[in-house]
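EI: anyone free to look at a 90-residue chain?
SC: sure, send it
EI:
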Amino acid sequence: MSSWLPQFKSYLKIPGILYFLKNMNLPITSDIIEEVIRNTHIFNDIVLTSHSHIIRLSPKSDIVIIWINIWNSQNSTKAKCPINRCFNIG
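SC: here you go
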């Protein structure tokens, strides 16, 4: 019988992302964010609980805030790894 550790949902806020991807002039999507999360080493142990949410700072803004919901451990070890770390999108 395998042991199962309690998990709960946490969210991570990723600020300051460009709405339009460079060289492509396409808006960023949840699929792009999720692919970056799958392929970036700082998110290795992160499992998303839902699609990411992309929110523009204002209707005409080129900057977005991305919210991701994750499964986290009781002592928040999974959420601590990507906090204050840099990664590239696009």
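EI: The CA atoms of residues 38 and 44 lie 7 Å apart.
SC: 👍
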